[in-house]
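Collaborator request, handled under Task 6.
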Amino acid sequence: MLRVPELPKLVVFIIRWTAIGAAGGLAAMVAVLALNIGGLRVLLEHSSSPWIVLYILGNSFAVSGATLSVGIAVWVREDFGGRGEPPNPRLERWKAGGSALILPEDEDRPLP
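Structure tokens returned to the collaborator:
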């Protein structure tokens, strides 16, 4: 039986939010075509090769949505402690006016 190794948390995080964003981007493309924004659907209907246009448009919306969702997920640190929680005590020490240097009493937390 084939054993699939467990993926690191960061890889799962990126795959998850990339898929969510790509789906959102494609949904936005469908909405743009359904609402005929800018007459895009009419142009598509009169195109000599609508499948190529749909392919390029779909990829553009999917990539844009994927990068946007990954960026927002990283920004709010979804799946990694939620909003507002500092990643380490050095940040709180720095905000309070102290040093952000690594001190001997700081916990060493390498990435998984």
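The cover message to the collaborator said: "The chain has a mean pLDDT of 82. The chain has one domain: 9-95. Please let us know whether this matches your experimental observations."
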